[in-house]
Write a structure and sequence with these properties.
The chain contains 4 helices and 8 strands; from the N terminus they run ββαββαβαββαβ. By secondary structure, the protein is α/β, with parallel strands linked by helices. The strands form 2 sheets. The chain has a 4-stranded mixed beta sheet. Strands 7-6-5-8 form a 4-stranded mixed beta sheet. It is elongated, with a radius of gyration of 20 Å.
């Protein structure tokens, strides 16, 4: 078991990670690494603060893919489909659908790419897409509830 103090400079909370979960994700438990914690929050009677007992841990990219409904890319008439294929191809072993909103001066349409183009929403993919299309044209659309709705 590990007790990890989470501190963002404004507040602190202790996170308890039991042995099996700790051993499974030990490599993620590093300073300044962003993790998503699913667990139970309770009052810590000893400190008077809150304590979190973790049920699940996942890295940001995994959580992003798990809770994303789709990634929507907006592309104008100047965008290049070959460039899109080049950027997406290394990440096409994931679960997140990709839709492309294509528009020019005369028309606008949205196309959902096929199953083969589902991606892992890794940080480097998002950075590449934002550098190419701009931050306003790359959106992750999330489900309304974490239960899959």
């Amino acid at each position: 078991m590990a007790v990890i103090t989470l501190d963002d400079g404004t507040a602190r909370v202790d996170l308890t990670v039991f042995n099996e979960l700790f051993e499974q994700h030990r490599h993620w438990l590093k300073e300044d690494l962003l993790l998503i914690v699913e667990g139970k929050v309770a009052l810590d009677e000893f400190t008077g603060g809150l304590r979190v007992t973790s049920d699940k841990l996942c890295e940001l990219a995994t959580a992003r893919s798990r809770f994303a409904k789709r990634m929507r890319l907006e592309m104008n008439g100047q965008a290049n489909a070959a460039k899109l294929k080049e950027l997406l191809a290394p990440y096409c072993n994931g679960s997140c659908p990709v839709s492309v909103v294509y528009y020019n001066q005369n028309a606008r349409c949205e196309v959902e790419l096929g199953e083969a183009w589902r991606v892992n929403l890794k940080d480097d993919l998002l950075q590449l897409l934002v550098a190419w299309l701009s931050v306003d044209n790359v959106r992750i659309i999330y489900r309304e509830s974490a239960s899959g709705g």
